[in-house]
Every structure is written in C-alpha cells, then in structure tokens.
Amino acid sequence: MNIVVCVKYVPDATGDRQFESDNTVDRVGVDGLLSELDEYAVEQALQIKEKAGDDTETVVTALCVGPEKAVDAVRKALQMGADRGIHVVDDAIAGSDAVATSLVLARAVEKAGGETRVDLVVCGMASTDASMSVVPAMLAERLGLPQVTFASVIETQGDQVRVKRDGDSATEVIGATMPLVLSVTDQTGEARYPSFKGIMAAKKKPLDTWSLSDLGVDAGQVGLSVAWSEVQDTTARPPRTAGEIVKDEDGSGATALAEFLAAKKFI
Amino acid sequence: MSEVLVLVDHVDGEVKKPTLELLAIAKRLGEPSAVFIGGAEEAAAAGARLTAFGAEKIYVVDDAEIRGYLVAPKAEALQQLVEKTSPAAVLIVSGFEGKEIAGRLAIKIGSGLITDAVDVQEGPVTTQSVFAGNFTVTAKVTKGTPIITVKPNSATPEESGGAGTVEEFSATISEGAKTAQIVASQPRQASGRPELNEAAIVVSGGRGTGGNFEPIEGLADALGAAVGASRAAVDSGWIPHNFQIGQTGKTVSPQLYIANGISGAIQHRAGMQTSKTIVAVNKDEEAPIFELVDFGVVGDLHTVLPAATEQINKRKG
Ligand SMILES: Cc1cc2nc3c(=O)[nH]c(=O)nc-3n(C[C@H](O)[C@H](O)[C@H](O)COP(=O)(O)OP(=O)(O)OC[C@H]3O[C@@H](n4cnc5c(N)ncnc54)[C@H](O)[C@@H]3O)c2cc1C
Predict the structure, then answer these.
(1) Are B295 and A133 in contact (CB < 8 Å)?
(2) Smaller CB count within 10 Å for chain B: N or C?
(3) From the CA of A175, how many Å to the nearest CA of chain B?
(4) B230 CA closest ligand 1 atom index
C-alpha cells in the first residue's frame, strides 16, 4: 500500500502569532512546528501500515509544502515512523491560498505515486493556523478521489475504508474504496512521540526536495499575487479589560456571582 | 439585481436558524435564492419558512439519487446552479459539511473562497476572527463568484418576506461524485437545551468537574443555557464530543459564557474568546482563564455553582 500523509508547518499556537505587512501569516518570526492536528494523521497512517503487516510493503510518505524551515515538519514525521519525506519548496509558493496549496499538493501526490498509485492520502482535520478545513476536500476534488473526512474512528480491510464521522447534526459511518482522501480528527487517539531510535533512524531516511518545476506547476498559478481571495486588513483584538475577581469565602462567591448575573440582566 | 445563492441547511425539511441568518445576509448583497437539496415533501415543509425569511426564489434539487453520499454530489448540484444563475455570491453555513462543499465548489468553478466569516457586508467584504480570536481580518474574494461560509450567529434573521417562487432544478450527478457512501447515520439526540452554537448563554465544564456535570447542568437550566465542555472533559469520557468547545470542537460566541473548572488553554479560547461577557469559576487564582473574564470567582465549583443556582432560581421567583 502506498500512503501519503500531508503535513503542514505552522506557527506555534502557544507563541505570539502575528501578520506580516502584506497581511500574510508571519511564518518566520515565530517558532514553527508540525501542526499538532497533522500528528494525528501521521499516527493513523502508521497504524494503518502496522495493521496491514510487513508483507504488504506499505510505504508511508510524509509530504509538506512550505518554506525552507518547513522541512522540520517532514523530519518530525520521519522520526515518528514515516518511511520517506517530500518537501515542496519554492519562493513562488509564499502567500498561496488553500486553492493554490491544494493544487501543489495534488501534483505532488501524483508524482509521489510514481508508477504505482497512491492508495491513501491522509490529512489532519484542519491546520492550527488558518484552520479552514478545506484542503482535504479540495484535494479529493482535484485528484478525482472519494473523500472520507473528519474521521474519529478508522477501520480498514483490504482496500475498504470505514470511518465514524461526528457530523454537524448526526454521527455517521462513511465507507469508500481506496484510493481515497482521508482526514482524521484529534479524537482518533494520541499521536506517538518519536523514540530515540526513531530520531536516529530518521536521519537515514530518504527526503526529497521538489520545486514547482519538478511538479509541472507554473509559478504563475500560485502565490500571493494570484490568490483568489485577498485579506484587506488585520486588526489585533483589543485586550479584554481586566474583570472583577472575587475569592469565595463561606458562600460569598455564589452570592457575588448571582448578583453579577442579575446586574447584567442575565436572570 | 443579481441572485445570491444560499444553500439551505436542514434536517428532514426543518430549516436551521443559521440558514435564516444567511438569507438576511444575502439581502445585503442581492436577491436571496434558497437552494434546497432534499425530497419534495421536505421542500414543501421548508418553503414557508424560507419565504417568510426573505427567499425570493427557492431552487429545489431532488436528492433521491444522491441521498446517502457525502458532500461531492451537493457540490456538483451547486456548480450547475451557479452556471445557470451567475450569482453575486454563494453563501453556505460554516460546518464540517458546509466548508467541504464550499471547498469543492471553489475548485469546480474556479472561484475564491472565504471560510468562517462572522460578518459579511456589501462588496462582499467579510470579517473573520483568527488565531484563537486574537485578530480580526477583513477580506474579499478576488476571482470568480465569491463563495463564503458563514458561522452561525453572524446575523439576525429578518422576517422580511420574499416571493418564494419555487423552481425545480434537476442536477446531473456524475458517478464519480457518488463514491463516499454514508453507510449509517444516527441523528443527534435532542438534549432539551438550546443548541450550542445558537445559544445566548453557554455554561461549560472542564477537568475541574471531576466528571460530575450536575452543577454545570443545574446552572445551565437555571439560566436557560446550553452546556459545553473542554476537551479534557470529553477525553475523560464524561461528556460526548459534540459538546466540546474549542479549536477542534465548536466555536461559540454567546452573550454570556461561564467556564467552570476550565484552565483556559489557547485551544479552548479559540472556541469561546469572542463571547460578549465571560465568567469563570476556578479554584486556582492563577488559571489563565481569569485573564479573559469580566467576572471571576476563585473557588470550588462544586460548592459555588449549586449555591449560585439556588439564588438564581430564588431571584426568578
Ligand atoms: C491540537 C489540539 C487541539 C485541542 N483542541 C481543544 C478544544 O477544541 N477544546 C479544548 O477545550 N481543548 C482543546 N485542546 C486541549 C487543551 O490544550 C487543554 O488541554 C484543555 O482545554 C484543558 O481542559 P481543562 O481546562 O478542562 O483542563 P485543565 O487544563 O486540567 O484545567 C482544569 C482546571 O480546573 C480547575 N479546577 C480543578 N478542580 C476544580 C474545582 N473543584 N473547582 C473549580 N476549579 C477546579 C483547575 O484549577 C484547572 O484550572 C487541544 C489541544 C491540542 C494540542
């Protein structure tokens, strides 16, 4: 089986995230890392490989589109256990929107498959920075594959995939046949930490760097200047004014709370 | 004036409130046309409500052939409607399904997409809240037909009354769109409380509840509020995932949010930071949630909440 996991390099959510003067996300000034939500995708890809067994010769490839530093996201996936890494990096990609990113990812998935088809493209449920949650659906659209998305429980049997999806108004079971695009939620279970052995082994794993021309994507199709949507303005939210904080002593807290709610007309 | 397509979010013909909000937004941009994908009987049930809230046209797309498939067929139907009507914009409710339909549609019709708008004004210019609510962003689609997904509670439904002219639209659905099958579906059970993303007040509990949500539910019922939870409470198996608030759960923006036994991690804040008034009860005065609050009580929720609930019920008389 041939599995490709898409991993994004994002600014650390616990850091001080900012915008650049051109209204794109500052990806240089803040420490970045493999999006935590993509760790779940790597984990599930590895579990599917483990379940398939060694004799199926399953290969898990971690694929990242992003700036120079984004190679760290690929490395982390390799340390967790992915077999092979691909980093698509090209100055022209900077500032790309989801539409353009999905184009680059789609071409890279096709190239990653080479002579054999890619059976499974696994993604996280959203990025932790832009959190649009649309790239998996866009990838499925571009690749002409079924989408099995927002999976919280995953079962595979041969080329059959069945997942539980906590939809907007119902819990659903979704089924489809490989090849397909799968996206997984943080309900799928903790992602593994790279072991010392994994970290050492990762250094010897193949890691390819591709540019847009390697993918046959024209630089004019991606990047900020051709984005199909445009940010006009970004404003930091004014800090909330310090509220009143009381210490509960012998029931005083409950009384103060009820009084606050009454004063604000919530009762 | 151009039409503005609004994809109707409904369960068995019962139109959800966020769709009515979209109709109000559509009116700012052009003539609201509702797109109803479902059965004929359901469409009849939904028609009156859509008309009352401003739909000038209602396109009914019969779903007999596509029911039971995930997302892709709906995107195809919308694509064909966009080609037919050349609308000024397409509005869809922000949810798992809505965003995915929007994503596929954007690729199909070569148009820009904006997700999770909290406001849409003429232009259309959208407002979004990003980075866990720390920034407000205004944006515009610059190519094709703007496709915008809008969060619930972003507008007030207006009973403006439209013509509500019904038009059957038969979409041609490809076999390729019918590949991800909904094998089983279990509708969420009604809790008897307001829906989380529609509620004016949300009372939520975290790890500090120790698994006992009674004090949370008691306060919620006294205030007519919805119940929410942190991921820690969900991960502990105390409450189902559809109650989770935060980055990987629901985003709420109620008039009042009361966080109990919740520390206020950035991922939780992402789901509640834009609430109008924020209250917290936490026994640790250093808990980061107190940085956000308008009012906070440092204390044990197991004593503070039941006592406060009793006083509230008394005040209500
Ligand atoms: C990728 C990712 C996504 C995530 N998504 C979400 C999300 O969507 N939503 C979410 O909530 N979290 C999310 N998290 C988890 C988040 O980081 C926190 O771990 C989580 O929010 C903590 O929940 P908590 O506040 O209930 O628990 P804790 O952080 O353990 O806090 C418990 C609080 O309860 C207080 N307390 C204890 N006992 C009492 C008592 N008797 N009375 C009063 N107070 C008491 C303590 O002082 C403490 O402040 C995510 C994390 C990651 C990495």
Answers:
(1) no
(2) C
(3) 5
(4) 11
Domain ranges of chain A: 2-226
Chain A residues with CB-CB distance to B186 below 8 A: 170-172
ipTM more than 0.90?
A: yes
The more confident residue out of A30 and B184 is B184
C-alpha to C-alpha distance for A77 and A72, rounded to whole angstroms: 9
pLDDT in tens, B258-280: 999 999 999 999 999 989 999 99
pLDDT at A31: 85
**B294 neighbourhood in chain A, CB within 8 Å:** 240, 243-244
The two most distant CA atoms of chain A are separated, in Å, by: 73
pLDDT digits (tens, 9 = 90+) for B200-248: 999 999 999 999 999 999 999 999 999 999 999 999 999 999 999 999 9
Question: Residue A30 — pLDDT band, cuts 50, 70, 90?
Answer: confident
| Residue with CA closest to ligand 1 atom 52 | B267
Instruction: Tell me the CA–centroid distance for residue B136 and ligand 1, in Å.
Output: 25
Determine contact: B14 vs chain A, CB below 8 A. Answer: no
- Amino acid, res. A30: V
Nearest atom (ligand 1) to Cα of B205: 26
For the segment(s) A2-226, the CATH number from 3.30.460.10, 3.30.70.260, 3.40.50.620, 2.60.40.10 is 3.40.50.620
Give residues 25 to 64 of A whose Cβ lies within 8 Å of B. Answer: 37
Query: Which residue's alpha carbon is at the smallest distance from atom 49 of ligand 1?
Result: B263
A102 touches chain B (CB under 8 A): yes
User: What are the two backbone dihedrals, phi and then psi, of residue A246, each rounded to the nearest 5 degrees?
Assistant: -115, 150
> How remote is the CA of residue B290 from the centroid of ligand 1, in Å?
13
Q: What is the phi/psi pair of residue A41, to 5°?
A: -70, -45
Q: Are B112 and A186 inside 8 Å of each other by CB? A: no
CB contact under 8 A, B99 and A137: yes
CA dist., res. B48 & res. B58, Å (int) = 10
Distances (CA, A) of B179 to A152, A173, A181, B169: 20, 14, 11, 23
pLDDT of A29 higher than 80:
no
Nearest to A236 among B125, B134, B307 (CB): B134
